[in-house]
Design a protein that fits this description.
This protein is α/β, with parallel strands linked by helices and 565 residues long. The chain is built from eleven helices and 33 strands. The protein has a 21-stranded mixed β-sheet, with helices on one face. The protein has a three-stranded parallel β-sheet with strand order 10-12-14. Helix 6 (122-137) links the parallel strand 3 and strand 4 (142-149). It is globular and about 80 Å long. The two termini are 28 Å apart. This is F-box/FBD/LRR-repeat protein At1g13570-like.
């Protein structure tokens, strides 16, 4: 085994230590507000004790998040035992509103208000209305309301909430909307979740939003007919609870559609502008006829997402050469083996479905199980993401133009990665504690397969920082890896431990970006006169930002990914 590396960290000068407190007090307003935004809300409130400046800035923060769950109450399920917690939350609402209504030297305009709570009585209802009025009076742009009541099925939302000339985003959950006047001239985004609204009220609401661009309607009660003709509408998503609904979208610039738990036999759908639709999402479709109907309905479709379906191998569609991006989530078909008249095997798998898209450039397979083998050979594929998908035997990747590969899952045997000449970005999510038995040899083989990529990133969700313990002596070093990004989400160790106990397996390493918890440091490696490698902390290099699909389980989360370059 190669010798352990020496670690040279940078020490703070006495001057830096003396000035650290003053710097906190004198930070610019924009930075203090960004710190408040990034901290958990409970911790952000505690920063008020740092100084009067911090206290005043927190009281005038433009983004307000008020959630009873922060006080321990369960919004999703009402319980009498949560009453003291809700009373404490109401007290907090009263005091916070009083502080914000006082004169302030800072700008008090409200960018965003999110209020989620259970309204138990008239005083609580009055307090909700006061907060909404305060936000409207201070030029609010984004309003999110989740309001439940124990006295009736839905909380009645007062009409003044729909008269806002500055409001751009409006998200409403668990409320009733009826007999209101709607004046939302600047609104661009409207989401309705579990809202009780009838056809005539919905018609008036849409008419009051002439500039709307994104509309989502999900699990609404009493709504049966949806007619939308707003000229700027680009996204429309829907899930109707009724079985005899009617949907007509006449907007000429419609770009993206999403249908949830849908069947063409249960709801009449008419899309006037079929040639403008580029993105289609189908979640929990009832039958293959529904999938086929929507996929073939739009001739210029470029992006397709199918989430939650169990008979994909039965979906027979004609070739869709326009589709460039395909996402398959929660597909649980088992590979089928049929026999022709001569007794030869005829494999029918949902992977055959992918072959209907010959010009595919981006493929995401997320939480798909019961696969025997996985063979990816699309000639134009540039980006491949495999997340939590069980492949019993092997995964073979033969796409010659592949540049980005991200993987999170078990000990799947991959072949073909080492032969990909254009592979640049590799991102691996590792959990050694769940993969103990054969993890170390598999991990070593994965590193060797990806050694030729220009940017290699590892993200580990573990309780310990040692990826390869000292007692593991049968693992050979991996050559040709010069730049590495390593992030260990749970910090229970030091940077020195990671460098000493892990990087020995990479004798050619030159630069390392190492993140423990929320702290990131950058290191360069050099070879001493005695032949031993040593690590020295350096200033952060300029990042090369790219899109990571899996990070934090959110699509399109940007991370800096160049290591040293």
């Amino acid at each position: 085994m190669p010798k352990r590396r020496r670690y040279y960290g940078r020490k703070k000068t006495p001057k830096q230590q003396r000035n650290s407190v003053d710097r906190i007090s004198n930070l610019p307003i924009e930075i203090i507000r960004e710190i408040h935004f990034r901290l958990p809300r409970i911790d952000a409130v505690k920063t008020s004790i740092l100084s009067k400046k911090w206290q005043s800035i927190w009281a005038s923060h433009p983004r307000i998040f008020l959630d009873e769950i922060d006080f321990g109450a369960d919004y999703s399920r009402y319980s009498v035992t949560d009453k003291p917690k809700r009373e404490a939350f109401l007290t907090y609402l009263i005091k916070s509103l009083e502080i914000r209504q006082k004169p302030s030297e800072y700008n008090c305009d409200v960018d965003k208000l999110c209020l989620r709570m259970t309204v138990e009585n008239s005083p609580a209802e009055l307090l909700v209305n006061k907060w909404i009025s305060f936000a409207l009076e201070n030029s609010i742009k984004r309003l999110c309301l989740s309001l439940k009541t124990i006295n009736r099925d839905h909380y009645y939302l007062c009409g003044f909430a729909f008269c806002a000339h500055t409001l751009v985003h409006l998200i409403i959950s668990d409320c009733e909307i009826t007999n209101c006047s709607f004046k939302l001239p600047a609104l661009k985004l409207l989401f309705l979740f579990v809202v009780c609204i009838e056809d005539d009220d919905f018609k008036d609401l849409i008419a009051g939003c002439p500039l709307i661009e994104q509309l989502r309607i999900q699990d609404t009660k009493k709504l049966r007919t949806i007619v939308v003709s707003n000229p700027n509408l680009e996204f429309f998503g829907v899930h109707l609870l009724c079985s005899d609904g009617k949907i007509r979208v006449e907007s000429p610039n419609l770009h993206s559609l999403e249908f949830i738990s849908f069947s063409i036999d249960m709801c009449e759908v008419e899309i006037a502008s079929m040639t403008t639709v580029r993105e289609l999402t189908l979640r929990d479709a009832y039958d293959p006829e529904t999938l086929i109907h929507f996929i073939e309905k739009f001739p210029l479709l470029e992006k397709l997402i199918i989430d939650g379906y169990s008979d994909l191998c039965e979906v027979e569609i004609t070739s869709k050469p326009t589709v460039r991006s395909l996402t398959l989530c929660n597909i649980n078909d088992e590979d089928l083996t049929l026999f022709d008249w001569d007794g030869d095997d005829l494999k029918m798998t949902w992977m055959n479905f992918i072959d209907n898209f010959p010009l595919l450039e981006k493929l995401i397979i997320d939480t798909c199980s019961r696969l025997q083998k996985l063979h990816i050979s699309q000639p134009n594929l540039v980006s491949l993401v495999l997340k939590d998908s069980i492949v019993k035997w092997e995964a073979r990747i033969n796409s010659p133009k592949l540049k980005s590969f991200e993987y999170k899952g078990g000990l799947t045997d991959f072949t073909g990665i080492e032969d990909l000449q254009e592979l640049e970005f590799v991102l691996l999510y590792l959990d050694p504690l769940k993969l103990r038995d054969y993890y170390y040899s598999w991990f070593r083989d994965m590193l060797e397969s990806c050694a030729r990529s220009k940017h290699l990133s590892l993200i580990c969700d573990i309780e310990e920082v040692v990826l390869i313990p000292v007692e593991v002596t049968d693992i050979l070093p991996v050559n040709d890896i010069t730049n590495l990004e390593l992030e260990i989400i749970s910090r229970h160790g030091t940077f020195e431990e990671v460098i000493d106990d892990f990087t020995w397996i990479l004798p050619d390493l030159k630069t390392l970006s190492l993140t423990l918890g929320s702290t990131t440091k950058f290191f360069q490696f050099r070879r001493e006169e005695d032949g031993e490698l040593s690590a020295e902390e350096v200033h952060k290099p300029k990042p090369d930002k790219r899109v990571s699909i899996l990070r934090n389980n959110k699509l399109f989360h940007i991370i800096g990914n160049e290591i040293g370059g």
